[in-house]
Amino acid sequence: MNRLQIYRELRRHDKLGQKRHPMLEQSTVAKVMMYFGAGIMAVYLVFLGSLFGKLAAEEELPAMILGLMVLLLMPLDFLMRFISQQTPMMFIKPYLLLDMPRRTVVESYLLNLVISGYNWLWLTLLLPYAYICLVAGISLWAMLAVVLCGLLLVMVNSQWYLLVRTLIGRSLLWWLLPIAVYAAIIVPMVVLTDDPFDVMEDFFDTFDNAPMLWLLVLGALALLVAMLWLNRELQLRFVRQELSREEKKSTAIKHVWQLSFLERFGQVGEYLKLEVKSIMRNKAIRSRVLMSVGLIVMLTALISYTDVYDGAMLLNFWCYYCFAIYGMTTLVKIMGPEGNYIDLLMTQHENILLLLRAKYYFHVAILFIPLLIMLPAVIAGKFTVMMMVAYLLLTSGLGYLILFQLAVYNKQTLPLDAKITGKNNMESGLQLVIELTGMFVPLLLVGALVLTVGEDTAYLVMSIVGLLLTLAHPLWLRNIYVRMMRRKYVNMEGFHASR
Length: 499
Hints:
Helix content: over 70%
Distance between the termini: 33 Å
Strand content: under 5%
Structural class: mainly alpha
Shape: globular
Number of strands: 0
Radius of gyration: 25 Å
Low-confidence stretches: 419-424
Number of helices: 23
């Protein structure tokens, strides 16, 4: 069997695996919702492509879209992939013990990533842009080069994301790599010049004909090949390390945090210790936490020191998002880490209820970290103190009330340490609905209040509602606990099957 035949067979296995997955009926609902979201994104990209196409036709700059993609759209695409795209997990693991080259299996995964439907979705941006430019008189060969180069840039971005995501899984210091790269692209144009778009226009004046544009295509293709090679070698190396499970032996005396001050809270305090030590000791949990903190710092810097998000609704959105992002990245998998030892938790009456209380207290305490991080935005006049307090209470009350409902339905064990070959966790449609509700419903309520009664009154109402729901947490946590106990055998079976 040659390499092409292996690629085709692995792709066929992947499709069959999705059809035979025990959560097919539930995941189908989730897929329908994902297709709906993709449709909304397509409409948005068509609008942007038409807008940029009109500007490019007026300025006679066919390559304008490429500069805008590098400057604006690719960083946003990079962040969006953290939500939707995973590193090689379940795809690779079943083939590692077979008489099949690991290199070929990894290459198959990388090629599937390159030709994924998400990448082709960006044609909804490029094709309207190309059509408008063609109507304006720009040559067909030039626009073919622009469309192909833009598509190659999206594919390069998928490999760039995979490279960064894999490295961050090994050490959080690798966050400095994307920060440095995007800073090197954006800072000189935004900070060191009066009008970055004039600089971009001067640069792309040299690519106003088809031969020069096809040189850009060759450059993007060479970059894609280089990224594929680099990712292949990196994934092979990390897969080997993870399979060997080589433990680093150290003679140094390790200091173990006792966290004795939490003992005064009884069993809830013990579960609080478990939350803290899980973050300190487990890769999967720790990476989610620090990724959230990194995003908050980045967003706060953009809001405080640039005018990118100066619109009233955008400021409200990002203020809520900065408070809610940690819960959105950790509570979507609530009870997932505990699935590794769920049998032990079930041995005592109301153990799970105390665990839920500890999780809630921990996540409320975490909200004071974004509160401190966002102080520069308050000093810069972008956020008000009343606005910050309102969103903090709204997150601890309404936001967490919605996200904690996932504890009833989550039944997939989250691997604590495996990063490359761990099992992939599929979500049901109901789980996805709860996640989207927690992300957007509070903002919709805030938007309605701001439009009807004004910002100050809206923040006051939000604070009162959030405070009441926060104080009522014993009631709704017990309700969640009772519903969990009704499903305990179904959930335990799911935890056991997904370990």
